[in-house]
Amino acid sequence: MESGETPNPSPSGKRGLPEIHSSLRATATAAAGGTLVIWWPAFTFGAYDAIFFDNVMALWAVATAVLLAGLALHRQVSVPWGSWAALLLPSLWIVLGMTAPISKGFHYLHYFEVAVTILSAPYLTWLLSKILLSDYDELPTAQRFGAVGITLLIGILAFLLGKFNYLFLTCADFDVSGNNTPPGCAKGPPYRLR
Predict the structure, then answer these.
(1) Measured between alpha carbons, how far is 105 from 151 in angstroms, rounded to an integer?
(2) Which residue ranges run through the membrane (predicted)?
(3) For the segment 149-176, what is each residue's pLDDT rounded down to a tens digit?
């Protein structure tokens, strides 16, 4: 730097802190958001062969918040009917759960719950990314759908980690975390004590 020049205050001007490209930032943010939605339901589905109600309720809360925001702004913005339908799926699951007799053992609700959770997470990733990230529409199509693909991949990996939890977790790990022990978990002390 020559005398009289002011130092560059941007992150790219600092040693060791390169500028993060906006497409990486948008794709990574979208993928991370989707991952937060899908990993735990997929893991519990693998470990317990069930998706816990709190996972479905969290998905319902996010979908309903986006739905209500769209309804509040329906005069200013146009939302495609497919988006409305997808955002209503978690509410449909709740209505079906309320109307189906619990004592009759309607097992189809479990499969609908799994489908709603697993299929809605990537769609919500796409929809929320489109709404919340200003750079998202500027990304090439491959990168936009790449974030959804990453969400699906994390869901599949989380399911497999849940299915094969006995390879790296013990029953005590589930106990310590306040969860029930899944069938087939490994005996032994919690992972942190090994």
Answers:
(1) 32
(2) 20-40, 52-73, 79-96, 108-129, 141-161
(3) 888 899 899 999 999 999 999 999 999 8
